[in-house]
Amino acid sequence: MLKDLRKQFKDYNAIFISNPVNVNYLTGFTGSRGLILITQKKACFFTDFRYLEYAKKIVPKEFEVIQIDKKWKTDWPNILKKYRIDSLGIEEDYLTYAQFLGLRKISKGVKLIKSGGIIEKLRQFKSGEELRHLKKSQEINEKLLKKTLNFIKPGITEKDVEWFILENIRAVGAEGVSFTPIVAFGENSSIPHHQNSGRKLKKGDTILIDMGVKYKGYCSDMSRTFFTKKPTVIQYKVYQTVLDAQKTAIKSLKNGVLISKITGAAMGVIEKAGYKDNFQHGLGHGTGLEIHELPNLGSEKPEKLFKNMITTIEPGIYLPKNFGVRIEDMVIITGAGYQNITKAPKELKDAIIEL
């Protein structure tokens, strides 16, 4: 991993890593105080007394674990001098302006250069172990969805369903949620990222649930839309359009494919059905230690998908103040094409539930 990272060094001869997610990715460390310095030949992990013993057990052997304390501001310049660092890559998307000024103040004579998210770019290529964790995370997520559907009945609120999900996380084998679940009844389902409310469920309401859990730190993500009575003609058309758009996009996935081809495949189905203006969010995103990672299927750049990347495919159609439909699966790019790791049923017959 460090070898691959060092190959990305361009305008600097070392990188300073302070984003806790990237620290976790490189070392497995999950404490609140962990910093990393990587040069072409040396890797240092810094933490304070509270985590020192823990860090020495968990941080990989290629890192030298160094205790930091109140003398950090005077020790840091000596470290830069010791390793002959004259240009330092920084995580510009993570550091606050105040943190940047503080780092610059104690790094006199050293150029601080944007690293361009090189670790995030590496993270989008999942190892075998990471893919196993993601598959398990989604498996647990589906188990929780099934349990949740058995809980749903007329009169409960969106908040009730949210709390049911949160209360049953441990019971199904997850560590926590990867984001606050979205539960939208009736007209609220037309709001893509609806904020759960006290809206009560009535027979005939559309139900949209977007949820994910964490397993060994890895996030799953899935959306399903349900009808509590036979869909109307318009509901049938919208649901089938979203499902067809998703299936078309998934079938287009393969190693080396342009993201624009995937998004174009989904949008083509939606446009043909007359709902171009009712789908405005990105088609999908990577998941991993964070719920939103690269690749970004909303990007307008000429980027591609490659083997061992994972992405959600989540088209949606939203009719304001009426109802909305979103269907979301997690899919791995393989050498031969793709592997959809989301098994929860999604055909229209599966979307009709009895209350």
Quick summary:
With 355 residues, this protein is α+β, with helices and mostly antiparallel strands. The protein has eleven helices and 19 strands.
Question: How would you describe the overall organization of this protein?
Answer:
This protein is an alpha+beta fold and 355 residues long. It has 2 domains: 2-123, Creatinase/prolidase N-terminal domain (Creatine Amidinohydrolase, Chain A, domain 1); 128-351, Creatinase/methionine aminopeptidase superfamily (Creatine Amidinohydrolase). It has 11 helices and 19 strands. Helix 9 runs antiparallel to helix 10 (259-272). The radius of gyration is 23 Å and the shape is elongated. The chain starts with a helix and ends with a helix. The model has no long low-confidence stretch (mean pLDDT 96).
Largest sheet: 6 strands, mixed
Q: Give the distance, in angstroms, between the N- and C-terminal Cα atoms.
A: 51 Å
Could you list the spans in which at least 5 consecutive residues all have pLDDT below 50? none
Mean pLDDT: 96
For the record, the count of structural domains works out to 2
Rg estimate, integer Å = 23 Å
Determine the structural class based on helices, strands and strand pairing.
alpha+beta
Any idea of the CATH class of the largest domain?
A: Alpha Beta
CATH topology of the largest domain: Creatine Amidinohydrolase
The proportion of residues forming helix, as a percent range, comes to 25-40%
Number of helices: 11
- How does the overall form come out from the CA principal axes? elongated
Q: Can you count the beta strands?
A: 19
- CATH-defined superfamily of the largest domain: Creatinase/methionine aminopeptidase superfamily
Give the amount of beta strand, in percent.
15-25%
Order of strands across the main sheet: 4-3-2-1-5-6
N-to-C series of helices and strands:
HEHEEHEHEHEHHHEEEEEEHHEEEEEEEH
